[in-house]
Amino acid sequence: MTGTPPPGGTLPALLDNVALVVVTLIGVIYLLLMHDLGNAQLIEFGIILLALILVAAGGVVVLRFPETAIRLVVWLAGRWSALRRKPFMPEPTIAVVKQFVATWHSLRKGNWSVPCSVPSQTWPLTC
Prior knowledge:
Layout: H1 11-33, H2 39-64, H3 66-83, H4 90-108
Helix pairs in contact: 1-2, 2-3, 3-4
């Protein structure tokens, strides 16, 4: 195992987060209109929404400024490893960031319509 996810391994999670934010916003707005949302629930939702927004913003920064993002991610991962007193090798981290950018550029070129790595019973119309 090389330590890097398969191509496109991080993008579905980010796109799932977008759907999660939209559905959650609809639910929170509904609860607000029905006056059935407590202060604690609103604060919890705000914290989770902030975390999801930070992840999405991080993805945008990586796509817009890949070299700067690589330096930042390597620095953060190095600090995290030092905090945990673990050895840190930046190569897998750099590979994941570069793979994320390459996958996104591949999707922008139209290479997203045929997910044939999934069994054909799941996606019978696309394979």
